[in-house]
Amino acid sequence: MLEKQMIENLKKMRELGENPYKYRYDITHSIKEILERPDDFIEKEVVSVAGRVISKRRHGKIMFLDIKDEMSKMQVYLRKDDIGADIYEIAKLMDIGDIIGVKGQIFKTKTEELTVKSDEFTLLSKSLKPLPEKFHGLQDKEIRYRKRYIDLIMNDDVKAVFFKRSEIIETIRKILKGYNFLEVETPVLQPVYGGAFAEPFTTHHNAQDMKLYLRIANELYLKRLIVGGINRVFEFAKDFRNEGMDKTHNPEFTQVEFYQAYADYEDMMNIVEEIFENLVPNGSIEYQGQKIDFKRPWKRIDFYGSIKEKTGFDIKDKTVDELKDIAKKLHIDIENKKTSGKIIDEIFSETVQNDLINPTFVINQPIDISPLAKMHRDIPGVVERFEPIIAGMEVGNAFSELNDPLEQEQRFNEQVKERKLGDSEAFEFDIEFIEAIKYGMPPTGGVGLGIDRIVMILTDSPSIRDVILFPLLKKEK
RNA sequence: GCACCUCUAGCUCAACUGGCAGAGCAACUGACUCUUAAUCAGUAGGUUCAGGGUUCAAGUCCCUGGAGGUGUACCA
Q: pTM higher than 0.90, yes or no?
């Protein structure tokens, strides 16, 4: 009904000789600029601003509007006597949601509100769908995610999250570029997937009649570039994992991975700390009611050691049956976990991970859950690896990269075995990657950081869907 | 995947143990030249997510399906 009325208003505008969809409009100032230093504008230069009408108060021959541009909103005062009777007729046909431009001086009303006194009024784009009610805004989560544009129109804090997201990515990029890392692009479509434990999405290339996977990670390609002599390399990558969705998982998500030749995992911990030092300049933030302190150096805890400390059990060098027994004693459900690596990992996340609120590097993970990491130089059975944990969330993964091709070959073979034992997430054997590192890969440190989770933490968002503009939803039926 | 919850006007929400489907905002008509959740008078607006069942009677109870949320599983 309302839509019918809005189309009716559009028609009436056309009958009055108005084109309701203009081509351009000269804006002299953003509303934000005017609000920031009002004294420079009040009763001074003529400004023109443009934005969406979000509310309308008509009083006979005058009207007040609130318009909103990208960042801010401001009141507009329209007088029939100022803009002319013809234009005032157009203004009367304007609906909430229409996009307009106004030109005039800034003044303060009796109630001290900064207002544009419009001498010229231009309807720039007629809307034909009613916006949600102004006071309660848009609450329905389904509409907010499915039609994010309405969410952005109505909810300023949502817009702020995505501006912040862009800022975070820019900060990371700037730091890496500052250290002469080269930004590259590597394939999303991969004939062999690898670099992480996950189920891939599969697709098909018709012309080549070839099965392809959407990447679950870009690690093995970036390492090829290290082999090729690009000594510092990074990529902001959309990765895809064919798995369940929850507060911290979306099937497509963003990671930044970076690799530095001649560095080890200690060096990479320093860069990660530096990145967060820049992302959180005042040293601490609050996330979901908990204070998080980012001051360097971050706490480091040993993978096996922290489990022992927490539970009293030393789970290193145990058989699968012994591990199952320990898990049982700790009341951890490991029904679906078959390999010792999976059980160990589960014990860790159930006992230690959730309590790590302040940024912590969990270091020296077991070798059997780290097929791309180099063995620890001193401690047998573990690798040189760290996972940064913040607010109980794993926000990254990093190692001194394994560059011994024969050992890598062996590790892939282990994965193939696990795959045969039923672990559908175990690696495929990537023979081309082995070939690449056979040409010689320098010692290298590498890091992957989960951008979405980092944005969640820095914007105090409880769900990954709040930091992804268009999170995956089922098709509407 | 499983469990629980939700789905009513464009939006935000009501409707008792089954008994005429309602309000505010938005919209429409009229009044109003400093209002701001403008005000005042009036008007209109519904496949109650879809389909089936029980009943004299279903928004409400039952079944099937859909979408969303929360938790859990999976997921490094």
A: yes
